[in-house]
Design brief:
Blueprint: H1 2-27, E1 58-59, E2 64-68, E3 73-77, H2 80-85, E4 101-102, H3 105-109, E5 112-118, E6 123-129, H4 132-135, E7 141-150, E8 158-161, E9 179-184, E10 196-205, E11 215-222
Parallel strand pairs: 4-7, 9-11
Antiparallel strand pairs: 1-5, 2-3, 2-5, 5-6, 7-8, 7-10, 8-9, 10-11
Length: about 220
């Protein structure tokens, strides 16, 4: 009897071995195998290429900054597009050809910044991001008044500031856009520190020269 039972059990095992695939398929059972499972490779993350310049400069990242007078520092603008759209709009009324444009310091200081590596000086500095209103002024004849700040002892290199020396960009940590490089048309008169004068000249926007301020007034002459 025992031998008959063992023979019957053996026949069941053999039958199961040959029919297991059919049974598994019938009952929806998935078999695990030792074969290597090939999964599709995940695509590599796309690396963003930051804007570069022929002279070796490049923007460090996509972050946009603004100068905050309350904290005397650069502050990140979280939403770049919204930030640019919310910038105060100053109407630039371009008058007749012979009349220069009266500049408002608040307009000049209402810009944003990006951190840029300058190959010329091998260091990172904040570069200006000018709005459309300011870009329209590039190369235009303008009039602006401010405090004269000589950069050298001879008084040949001058800058014009929205603030007096004690609270200007150099000493008081005001906005870097609150000062202009100024080149006189005829260097005859010597100016003293904090002379409050109105000048007329051609405004140039400085995008990529780390040795100049963001704004340059060329052929400047005193406006009476």
């Amino acid at each position: 009897m025992k031998k008959l039972f063992l023979a019957f059990l053996t026949s069941l095992v053999v039958a199961f071995f040959f029919t297991k695939d059919i049974l598994f398929e019938h009952f929806g059972i998935t078999q695990e195998t030792n074969s290597e499972i090939i999964t599709p490779e995940e695509p590599e993350e796309e690396t963003k290429t930051l804007e570069t310049f022929p002279n070796g400069d490049y923007f460090v990242d996509e972050t946009i900054f603004r100068w905050d007078e309350t904290v005397i520092d650069w502050v990140k603008v979280e939403d770049t597009t919204a930030g640019m759209e919310e910038m105060i709009k100053y109407p630039v009324a371009i008058k007749a050809k012979e009349e220069p444009i009266e500049l408002d310091w608040n307009l000049l200081m209402n810009i944003e910044y990006r951190l840029r590596y300058f190959a010329q000086i091998d260091m990172e500095m904040y570069a200006p991001v000018f709005g459309n209103e300011i870009e329209e002024l590039d190369g235009k004849e303008v009039v602006i008044e401010g405090f004269v700040i000589p950069i050298d002892h001879e008084g040949e290199l001058l800058s014009l500031s929205h603030y007096p020396f004690a609270s200007c960009f150099f000493c008081g940590k005001a906005s870097p856009a609150s000062v202009i490089s100024m080149y006189l048309k005829n260097q005859r008169k010597r100016y003293k520190m904090d002379d409050f004068i109105k000048f007329r000249g051609t405004l140039h926007l400085n995008y990529d020269d780390p040795d100049e301020f963001y704004y340059i007034l060329r052929d400047a002459r005193e406006e009476k």
